[in-house]
Write a structure and sequence with these properties.
single chain; alpha+beta
Length: 111
């Protein structure tokens, strides 16, 4: 059964969704993990050179708590840790593609 939205419940729903992606880096991290990408921490660091190691750790931990990213630990020495989107995190891809297209409309409109 599809939820019926009112202006108030829709605004509350959007606010809750945006809290999950609050911060400068979470969406950037997600874009690197879309399409089933599984990346090691060091690969994410290289892919996003302007993020600090501390911030990347914090963002990944919060995204894991929120159920957007899964942390995969391989039992080996030295430890190998990889990150991937959960199915729920991956499901956001079409919405973010739509957001990119929407942003592109403004760029084209301003010219």
């Amino acid at each position: 059964m599809e939820k019926k939205w009112t202006p108030i419940t829709a605004a509350e729903g959007v606010e809750q969704a945006l809290k999950i992606f609050d911060g400068k880096w979470k969406l950037v991290i997600m874009f690197h993990l879309f399409g089933g990408q599984v990346l090691r921490f060091s690969e994410l660091e290289k892919a996003i050179p302007t993020i600090t190691q501390k911030m990347l750790i914090q963002q990944l931990r919060q995204m894991e708590v929120d159920g957007v990213v899964r942390r995969i630990v391989h039992a080996q020495v030295p430890p190998k840790v990889e990150y991937a989107l959960t199915d729920w995190g991956q499901a956001l891809c079409p919405a973010l593609d739509a957001l990119l297209k929407w942003a592109d409309l403004r760029e084209n409109h301003d010219k």
